[in-house]
Amino acid sequence: MSENERLDALSFTVSGRVARPCAEVYEAIADPEQLSRYFTTGGARGRLEPGTEVTWDFHDFPGAFPVRVVEAEPPRRIVIEWDGEAAADAAGTTRTTFELEPLDGDTRTLVTITEAAWEATPQGARSAFGNCAGWTGMLAALKAWVEHGVNLREGFYA
Questions:
Q1: Hey, CA dihedral for 19, 112, 35, 30, is it positive or negative?
Q2: Could you give the C-alpha distances from 117 to 44, 133, 147, in angstroms and in order?
Q3: How far is CA 28 from CA 36, 80, 111, 113, 134, in A?
Q4: Residue 66 CB contacts under 8 Å (≥ 6 apart), including other chains
Q5: How far apart are CA 110 and CA 85, in angstroms?
Q6: Structural domain includes residue 133
Q7: For the chain, how many structural domains are there in total?
Q8: In DSSP terms, which residues pair with 68 in a beta bridge?
Q9: Are 47 and 54 in contact (CB under 8 A)?
Q10: 145: exposed, middle or buried (C-beta count within 10 Å: 0-12, 13-18, 19+)?
């Protein structure tokens, strides 16, 4: 980075492939009942639909988190916002985008998750790295759940 370039915000992207069609993978993310079985270990309340606010609860981070659904375009894209410590935007939120791309005649799905905008500070970096690890874990749990019906997070945090 040159002297004239300035890092204003941090973001990250993680991705993985799930051996199921886009529509099935999308449902596993959007449907609170399924999401609660493999990711939101304390439960998810509300379907991910545009303009709604749902809650996600995790055993490893107790307390229900409000999640605002900005976009939902089945079966390809979901965009959410939620509050984040050291978020770079004025509202104190980060934006997470789930993009689903069909592969191999829609027998597999490439799931890409991008979260932005963390402050370019030590606290922002800690928050971004923590969430990056969380979304990577979500992808692994999503794959195990959708492909094999296995909940990887059961007993992992509590």
A1: negative
A2: 24, 16, 32
A3: 10, 16, 12, 14, 17
A4: 53, 54, 55, 82, 83
A5: 29
A6: yes
A7: 1
A8: 53, 81
A9: yes
A10: buried
Distances (CA, A) of 32 to 17, 20, 24: 21, 19, 14
Q: Along the 158 residues of the chain, how does pLDDT read in single tens digits?
A: 555 677 788 999 999 999 999 999 999 999 999 999 999 988 999 999 999 999 999 887 778 899 999 999 999 999 999 988 888 888 889 999 999 999 999 999 999 999 998 999 999 999 999 999 999 999 999 999 999 999 998 877 76
Range of the domain at 13: 9-32+72-148
Q: Judging by DSSP bridges, how do beta strands 53-58 and 108-119 pair with one another?
A: unpaired
Instruction: Output the six-digit token pair for 89.
Output: 């935007």
Task: Report yes or no on 102 lying in a domain.
Answer: yes
